[in-house]
Every structure is written in structure tokens, then in C-alpha cells.
Amino acid sequence: MSPTRTTGLRIKSPDQLVAESGADLEGHGLKRTMGLFQLVCFGVGAIVGTGIFVGLSDSVAKAGPAVAISYVLAAVTCVFTAFSFAELGGAIPVSGSSYSFAYASLGERTAFLVGWCLLLEYGVSVSAVAVGWSQYLNELLHSLTGWELPAALSAGPGEGGAVNLPAVVVILLAAVLLVRGIRESAGATAAMAVLKIAILLLFLAVAFTAFEDGNLTPFAGAGVSGVTAGASLAFFSFIGFDAVTTAGEEVRDPRRNIPLAIMICIGVVTLLYVAVALAAIGALGSDAVAGKPAALSLIVNQVTDSTVGGGIIAFGAVVAIASVVLAVMYGQTRILMSMSRDGLMPRVFERVSPRTATPVANTWIVAAVVAVPAAFSSLDVVVGLTTIGTLAIMAVVNVAVIALRRSAPGLRRTFRVPLYPASPVIGVGFCLYLIWGTGWTTWLQFAVFLVVGAVVYALYGRGHSRLGRGGAPVSAGAGASREA
Hints:
Number of strands: 0
Order of helices and strands: HHHHHHHHHHHHHHHHHHH
Strand content: under 5%
Helix content: 55-70%
């Protein structure tokens, strides 16, 4: 299939994407070191973190005891979209994730705007998660020593401090690990994923001993609107499963393992989130959980009448949230690498070190950029914008499945969306429903954000596009090494 030359509608075929990335061999100077278990742990590492350890209290504030339904609604949205990610991830196993899927089906302009939204999603996620890590680090220090970092060094100016130093530290530590190599990063992520699941199971064991049915009533006092608002916030908790597809060039047998890993991750995370929400509210009631930072530690402390259990939960949260920073930063660098390979971002982002087989300069640039808002802002203003951007991306991925079924019916697909075409259409519907729940101010912010992205594409991306200039595929990028 030849690319469409109309400006902005240029399409890069799946075969061309795979060939240019070397995804069926060694991807763009990257090494295939991750197996299925490591990939599942990577996905869990990208999802389970701030959303449950910190974000639960915000979702409870919106939906009350019905927050479990909010999580289910968010999860159902993710499941339908996960089917689409699994099909496309198995068919186009490259680092670009939904950006590359859009490029292969809907054209270059749409792909750039998807990539633009991905940069927001991943960047804000890393910064927001790092801020949450700082909160639990203080909780852990208080549990162990009775001492906390002073507010001036553990919170941004908007929260009564000067700089959030721990947030910066965790970002820099993640960058150090990422530039060392994917084997080291994947091993660390796997270990942290196993540990944080064990900590959450410990929380469930403690919280359910104090479970009272009366704490779940009135179950949906805020009505359907509260459940929807809670689901829109809860959806932020599920952001990260799409990061599995960004590992397409560093996974062994990606056409098999990527779809499997996505399905396993969604199942595990949904069960954990719903169980934790029910246990937390059943133990103390929604009023005691809503709006409380480090809510899980607070619950365990009150149930056990001791700070030891809360300290263990805080330790688990510190590990869990650090793994999210690591996994999401990884995804951000691979998205940028793919966009750079296509000429839509500066070439520095595609360079892979021949020594470590990682995009070193790319990683440090990302770390520097996301560390600034983490240090000086709570990011509450842009969380809604990130959520709507992610929902829009997922709607596009569902549409991309339909478009590719039509344009490339013979494409090798190791996983096929069940109940096609109803499944992707339902996925789009759920995304639009949750977008509706974000409110008109967020819609306006998102519209402005897209206009800015369109201007950036017009001024830079369109003219630098390698596909648009008819350039030859780049095998490994400047400074890259293709090692078998």
C-alpha cells in the first residue's frame, strides 16, 4: 500500500512501519530482552500506582461508595479499547503505540495529534505520579522515624512549599535506570510489580476484617452524574496499559506477547482496583476516605490501631509509584523516538546508544522536562486535560482498527477484536461518554491544546516529515547500533 501524498493524509503502511523499525528483528538499535512475564509486570507497573494509592480518595469524593461502579465503568471502557490495542499491537509491533497505529490507518496529521496527546498523557502522568510519590515518602518517613521532610522541600509553591525535591529525585533515579538498559529496567519493574501487588493483598486482608455493610449506604448518593464523574477520574488510574505497546521493539515474540500482556494486565488491575475500593469504603466509610492523601495507610492505621501497618502500606506505595514513573517515562521516550524516526520530532530523540541500546539523550531530555512541573506544581489543573486527551487517543485507536480492517484486510493479525465491528464501536461510545463527564471547561482546554498541536504540525512536522519528503527509511537512526 503506497502512502497517500495529500498533505496531512499521508499514510504509512503497517509493513513500512515494521520494516523501518526492524520490529521483526532487532528494533531500531534496541534489544529484545523482555518476555511475557516481564511485559505483564511492566504493564502492571505502569498502571498500579498513584491511581489507587492516591487517586482513590478523589474518586470517592465524586462517587461515594459507588466508586467501585466507577472503576468498573472505567475498566469496561479500557477493556473494549484494550481489545483494539491488542489487535494493533500484535499486527504492528513497533514502539510508536497508538501514534503508529493512527499513522498506518488515519494519516499523518491525525497521527501527529495523537502523538501530541500522548506526550501530554505520559508527561503529565510522570509529573503527577512523582508528586504522589513524594506524599507517600513523607508518610513512610513519619511511620519509621516520626520525622518528615519540611514542606519547603516536599511541596510546590501552590501547596505551601518551595520545591518538591523527592518528586525530582524519583524522576532522576528512573532516568538513570532507563539509560542503563532495558534488561535492568524490566527486571526492576518486575520486582516492584510483584511487591506492590503483595502489599495491596495485605491491605485487603486488613481492611476486610473491619468491613461493615452500613458503610456502603447510601450507595450512589450522588446519582448517575457522580458515578460518571468518578469514572472519569478513575480512568486516570488505568492510564498506562497502552504503554505495553510502546515496548514493541524490545519484547521477544511481540506479535504473541503484546496482546496477551494487555489482556492479563487489564484483568489483574480491574480486580485489584474494585476490591481495594470496596475494602477501603467498607472499613471506614466514604466520608473518612474522600479527599484524604495516603488514604490506604490511614485506613490500615485506624483498623489496626497502630502505625506499623500504615508504614508497610506507605512502603508499598513508594515502590508502586516509583515503578509507574519508570514505566511511563519509558513509554514517553519510545513515543518520541518513533515520532523522531518519522521526522515529526527533532532527530535527537531517535538516537540510540550503541553501548546501552537505549535512547540516552531522549531519556535525559524527558527527565528534565517532566521534573520541572513535578517540582513546582500540583498539576491538578491539567489532570482533566490529560484524561480527555487519553480518552480521545483511545477512541482513535478503536477507529483505527476499523480503518485497517478495510484498508489492509490481509495484514497478519495474531489477535482479532472479538465481536467486530460492535466491539470497537462500543469502545468509541464509552470513550465519548466519559469525555462528556469531564465537563465543558475541560473540552475547551482540549480544543485549545489540539489547535496548538495542529499549528506545531503545520510549522514543523509537515515540512520535516520523511514520508512527505519521500525519504528512504532510516534503519537505525543517528548513532544507533543494530545488534542481533
